[in-house]
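Bug report (template v2)

What were you trying to do?
Predict the complex of my protein with N-carbamoyl-L-aspartate.

What happened?
Run completed; filing so the output is reviewed.

Input:
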Amino acid sequence: MSLNSLASISMVKPDDWHLHIRDGVVLKDVLSHTVKQFARAVIMPNLQPPITTVALAQAYRERIELQLQQLATNQFTPLMTLYLTDNTAATEVQKAKDAGIVGIKLYPAGATTNSDSGVSNLKHCSAVLEAMQKANLPLLIHGETTDPSIDVFDREAVFIDRVLEPLRRDFPELRIVFEHITTLQAAQYVRDAHTANKNILGATITPQHLLMNRNAIFSGGIRPHHYCLPVLKREEHRLALLEVATSGNARFFLGTDSAPHPKGLKENACGCAGCFSAFNALGLYVEAFESLGRLDRLEAFASFYGADFYGLPRNTEIIRLQKQAQLVPTELPLGDTTIVPLRAGESIAWSLT
Ligand code: NCD
Ligand code: ZN
C-alpha cells in the first residue's frame, strides 16, 4: 500500500467478506457496483427460498456468473455459502467443501431479513457442526439472540454469553466468523478470545457501523435507510469498532453487509432492515480509517486479513483511490424499481480512479 500523498492511495484490490446480492432481475444492478471495487465477495445465502444445499448454491453461482458475463467482467469471483437450518444434513458439509463453498451461515430463526428458516436451537445442528469442525469449513454467524424479551440494542451482547461462548466451548476447533459486529462487547470478545489455533475466530465490520451511531436512525425524523440489523449502537460502540478495525489485528476484516431492498420496502410502515452500501463502500471505509489517521492499516483490513482467514490467496491487482468527493445519487436502478444507497444525495470523500 502506498499513501502517494494525502490525496491518493494505491492498494491491493480488496474483497468483501459479507455481501447480499439477491437474485433475479435485481442481481445485475446490485453486483455492478461491487465488481468495480472488490475482487471477490462472500455471497450470503438468505434468498427466498434460502440456499440450503450444495446443488442450490451451485445453481445460484451459475446465475451470478451469467450476470457477470453480461457485465462483461471476468475479474470477480463469487464465494458461495450455505444457509444452516435445523435439518441441514451432516453429509452436506464435505460436499460443500469439495464444491468450493467457503462457509455455512447461521441465522438464528427470525433474527433478520429472510431468516424464518434459520436455526431454532443449535442443539439440532451438533452433527453438522462436528462435520464442519472436521472439514475445516467456517461457520458464519449472525450473532443476535432472538429472545423477544431482550432489548434490541442488547441482542448481540446477550448472544455472546448465551450462544457463542458455549458453542466455542463445545467446538473449540470450529472456525467462526462473527459477522457484522456492532458492539464493544463483540469487539473485545473477538480481540481477547483464547483460541485453539491462530486462525479460528474472525469478525467482519460494516462501513455503517464504523461511521454512524444510533442517532443516525433518528436525526431530524426517522431514517429508514440507516436501519439495518444488527441495529446501529451508541457512540462508545462505534469507537470500539473503529479501534479494533484500525488496530492491525488480523481477526478483523472487511464485510460490507450491503443489503439491498427496494426503496418502497424501506420507506414503509414496516421497513426492511439493510443498508445498501455497495455504491462506494470502499470510499466509506477510507473515510473511517482516515478519521483516526490510520490509512496505513486499511489495506490489511480490506485486502489481506479476510483472504488469510479463509485460506485463499491474497489478490495482486492494484487499485487507486483519490481524495475527490463523489456525489452519491439519491436513487439507483434496481430491476424494475429503485434503491436508495447509503449517503444518498450527499458525498463520499474518496473515489476510485
Ligand atoms: C440483511 C438482509 O437484508 O439480507 N439485512 C441487514 O440488515 N443486514 C440480513 C442480515 O445480514 O442481517
Ligand atoms: Zn448480512
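What did the reviewer find?
Residues 18, 20, 44, 257, 259 surround zinc ion (ligand 2) (CB under 6 Å). The chain has a mean pLDDT of 97.
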